[in-house]
Predict the structure.
Amino acid sequence: MSEQSTAAIPASATDSNCVKQYHRTSRILSVASYAVDLMVMLLLLFAGWSAVLRTLALHYSLRPWLALLIYLLLFGSITQAAGLPFSFLEGFWLEHRYGLSNLTLGGWVKEQLKGLAVGAALGLMAMEFLYASIRRWPEHWWLVCVAAFMAFFVLMANLAPVLIMPLFFKFKPLDNADLTERLLELSRRAHTRVKGVFEWKLSEKSKKANAALMGLGNTRRIILSDTLLSGFNNDEIEAVLAHELGHHVHRHIFQLIAIQGGALFAGLYLIHRTLDVLTPHFGFHGAADFANLPLLALVTTILSLALLPAVNSYSRALERQADTYALNAIASRGPFITSMEKLAELNLAERQPHPWIEFIFHSHPSIQKRIGFAQKFSA
Ligand SMILES: [Zn+2]
């Protein structure tokens, strides 16, 4: 919901070749990375590699959880190795080529290792829970997992600002009393309780600017990247934050959690049915046989790709609602428009993507549209 991919220049401006190329390369890399992931899953499944890994894991331990752990480490090593060239090209090479990153190669590797450690810990826990549920409740495991994973998402939304984000970024209370008071006042008017306003040291890694209202309940806070603080005036920062508060006022986080719950419900039910039908064809020893993991991954990937345009269309509607709130909450639309222009410039945002590209891939309306909306807006 934050402004990773925001904004623009006057409504008549078009994207430079550099911006177009950056986004085209980025899309090619993500599509190629998706394709490689799919191919690896198909090979693991149809070439019988997954069954070989499972047999190997069971050779070392017959305890289900330990055998699964060994299998997951092998499975994870293969998928990570296959994905590594794309992580490097997308995360390091492309960002440097377009002057968007401040990370050294060593710094990037360190970031990747930290991300891998956090991702592996969460992934291992989730998979152990999933297969333990299949073993214990063969018919209703998917319902148990929907409930458990949803509870976990909400818990993570609450804990992320205090537990996860500090692993990757430094934060300190904002050292600007005027701006802090202004943003707290804006939050009060939006009936949003926040824990404070924090400066987010993004410049150690990136040249991009960003702001967000993050956390849930007692951990909710305003975070402003130092790159935003150094390049934007107070009116513009207020406009950016007013948009974030718009998400809160309209309870978008709960809508998104509900949608995630619906998608999880559909996805796990689909996996349950697929396993029922396909288990005999692949020679799995029942649904709890973890050699079926690539099949689970394939169903998940296909479903998330199929849902992508709908999810993004919905997200763009929420973004428009947040923009409307922001334009009503601030004194004039000028700073909203200039903040968009600056964000577009800094983040190399695509101002006018092809309508199909926007429809499928963009979670935010194009900058051109957002500025056009603000220009026509009358409170
Ligand atoms: Zn937003």
